[in-house]
Structure formats: structure tokens, C-alpha cells
User: Fold these one by one.
Assistant:
Number 1:
Amino acid sequence: MVGRLFSSIENIALGGEKMRVGQKLVLFALLFFPFILACFWVFGVKTKVQEKRIVIFLKEEEKELVLREMRELLRSVNMILYGISTGDYDLAHRYAKSSGMDMVEKFSAVEKTLLLKLPDEFKKLGFATHKGFDEVAELIKSRENQKILSALAELTSKCVACHDIYSIQAEK
Ligand code: HEC
């Protein structure tokens, strides 16, 4: 079907003369390129970002600071899990402590204006998360994995909750 269609177009284009391979390719590309594009348009991957989160506007450097702290939290979770799984409870304890309330104190000592820009709910969830790390640190001393892991699950549900509600953008 496609072959017949193609050779009749070839006939129209050259009035019955034989086409060279190069010409054929060009004609083929011209004919089918829109068709392929249309396929992508109809069947291709489509995404739509539905931003339903509350956006917190911060200065570029403030945003970077908060995100750096976030990466530290993830590192702590990671190292706590490593520590527990290898029996290195000291390592797990150290990393749990490093993301506890001490982190907040250091942060608020230098970033008072930044703290004022954060919504109250955000700060509450944030503080609860840091307290959670201190609680995990205490439990790590008991070396009871089940208890430690359930506290860690409780703690990480706060990460998930906050990420569902808020995002951060740099002020223009
Ligand atoms: C109080 C709110 C809040 C809590 C609690 C919270 N986060 Fe976040 N986190 C954010 C926001 C807001 C962003 C930026 C997300 C965005 O703009 O899309 C973020 C971003 C991140 C990022 C990306 C960093 C980057 O460089 O882009 C990581 C990793 C992260 N968080 C880890 C964690 C972990 C792990 C926890 C829990 C132990 C946690 N966060 C708890 C609010 C929170």
C-alpha cells in the first residue's frame, strides 16, 4: 500500500522518469517526517506539572542554604541505615545527632532573617524532624533495630509530609 502510494508520487514528481536513490530518500523523508511528528504528537509521552504545593520564596543563597541542610538530612538517614545494618551503632548515633536540635541551634544563630521568612507550619514540621533525629539517636543506644527502624519510619514520614506541602523558589 505504502509502496504503491510512494511510486505513484514518484511518477507525479518526475513525470515517469526513474529516481536516483538520493532523490528517493529525500522524497521519503519529506513525505513521512510530518507523519512521524504527528505520531509523536498523538501517542508520544506527555507530561504536565501540576504544582499544588505552597511555594516559599527565598533569596537564591538562602534557598541554597536550606537545600544544603536538606541534603545533610538525607545523608544522616543514609548513614544511620548503614550503621544499623553493619552493626556500627556509633556511626549511626553520630549521624543521628548531627541532624538533631543542635543543627537548628547552629542554623538559627546565623540565619535569623531566613527563619522569619519560613511559614510557622513549616518551622513546626522542621523542628519536629530535628527532634525526631535526637529521639532516633537515643534509641540507637539501645541497639534494638526494630525500635530504631520504627522511629526512623516515623521520622521520614515528616520528610514526606513536608515535601508534599512545600516547595522553594528563588525570588526574582
Ligand atoms: C519542614 C519541611 C521539610 C522537612 C521536614 C523536610 N524537608 Fe526536605 N525539602 C523541603 C523543601 C521545601 C524542599 C525543596 C523542594 C522543592 O522546592 O521542590 C526540600 C528538598 C529536599 C531535598 C533536595 C535538596 C536539593 O539539593 O535539591 C532533599 C534531599 C531533602 N529535602 C531531604 C529531606 C529529608 C531526608 C528529610 C527528612 C529527614 C527532609 N528533607 C525533611 C522541606 C522539608
Note: The domain at 54-170 is CATH 1.20.120.10 (Four Helix Bundle (Hemerythrin (Met), subunit A)).
Number 2:
Amino acid sequence: MAPKKQLADADVLAEFANLEPAQVVSFRQKHPDFFPDTFWPDGRVGLPEILVKAGEFGFDWKRYQDLLRSAWEKAFPLEKCIRLIAPSGRLEQSELYVFGSTYAYQSAVMFLHEQPWRAKICEECHKRFVADHAKRRYCSVARATSEGGWTKCSEIKIKESHNKWGRKNNWGRPRGR
Ligand SMILES: [Zn+2]
């Protein structure tokens, strides 16, 4: 069993790995302390805009996300994890480096390095998620249904296999007549 905090942080890392550019603002509002402020474009410290645009200084969030996604596909190998936790570029200018503090994103990366079986890609929606047991194939992230309610991939798959069983077995009723 993993401590709740570690699992929660890993879930946030998965959320970040799935993030679309339009969702950046709401992600930051929801998880203000997950990354240092300098991680985000408007939080950078004393770096000329032109250099940031040229991408010469380590990560911007999108490049970090690309690296994270490739780590997710390859079960968090050491060399990728080192790049993911080492303060680079703008992160070097943050308190992370100056005061030696650690951030939730770093412990989440290390957690998935230690338990790489948890880093999965949902077979239904193809988003990254953190599994609670090794055989899990579908995520449990809530999303809206066309009928205005909520569902998740794991529920969809349970329903599907139930329907499949029902069709095959005549819904438990005897056949014929
Ligand atoms: Zn899913």
C-alpha cells in the first residue's frame, strides 16, 4: 500500500501529463503548489522573453510534459526520472534550487519510478492514469456523458461486459419457446 499523499501526488502528475494547453490556468488554480511558480511562463524570474521563446533555457511546461509522457510510456526509467526531477532551466532559479526544497511533482516522479506498474495508459480513453492495482486497464477519471451525467472508463467497460454477457446468455432467462 502506498501512502495516500503519494498516490494523490501521482494522480496530479497524471492530470498534468494529460493536460491540454487550454487547461493550464485551471490546473494551476487547482494545484498551486505542485510545481514552483517559475515552472510556468509568467512565473519565470529575470529571463529575457526572446531566450524563453527560443527554448534555450531548459524546460517550458510543454517540453516537460513531452518528457513526462515519454517516461510514462517507458515505465519511468532512471535516466528520464533524473531529467524530470533535476531543476533545469527556469527551475534552477526557483527556491527549489536555492533552498533545496522539494516539490510534489518530484516526489510523484520518484514514486512512479519505484512503482512503475502504476503508470498506465487507459485502454478506453487513452489518457494516462495511476493504477491502484497491477491488472487495472481502464481509468477511473470522471467525465461527462452525453445524457448529462457522469461516468468513467472503468464503469463503461463493466457495463459493456455485462451487456455482452447478457446478450450471450439471454439475460439469464432460459432460451427457446
Ligand atoms: Zn479512461
Note: The CA atoms of residues 39 and 91 lie 6 Å apart.
Number 3:
Amino acid sequence: MHTCLWREGLHNISCCNRHLRFRPMGGGNGQKSKMARERAQEKTKAAKGSQLESNKKAMSIQCKVCMQTFMCTTTEVKCREHAESKHPKSDLYQCFPHLKP
Ligand SMILES: [Zn+2]
């Protein structure tokens, strides 16, 4: 069975004659798809960057005693555990003032 690659934008001279008229001049199509690929890569890079940024933002709970950061989703129980194991001499609210009622 003959499979024409034109639909995938991979059409070349060795592909079926029926689609030769769609062949772009000077291989412009290849250039275009390469640019599109690069643009897509840039997009992914940007997405990754913003992901990192939001990860950083998510580390919004900080122990004021040892400056360790925690995800903003960290529960009070976990904070308490940290305070009790790392700073048994310090008050929980000294480590995490935001837990103060
Ligand atoms: Zn700490």
C-alpha cells in the first residue's frame, strides 16, 4: 500500500506524484516546521520555568528558627512535628508564627 506523507508535512519528491504540486518552493516547509518545533520547545521551556516559579512560591511556610521551607500545603501537624523534633527547646509558634491562633 502506498502511504503518502504529505499530510504529515513530510512530503518529498519521492512521495506520490499526486501531491507534488503541494511541494513548497525551496524547502520552505521544512524550515517552517523546524521553526514551529523550536517555538514549541520554547513554549515547553517557559512552562517549565513557570512551574519552577510556582514551586518556589508554594514553599511559603518557613521555620523561623532554622529557615527551612515547607510547602504551603504543609499541615499544622507536620509543622508541629518539625518543631518538636528539630527544636524541642523552642515554642511551636517561635518556629511557625503563622500558626498562632
Ligand atoms: Zn526548624
Note: Helices lie at 28-58, 76-86, 92-95.
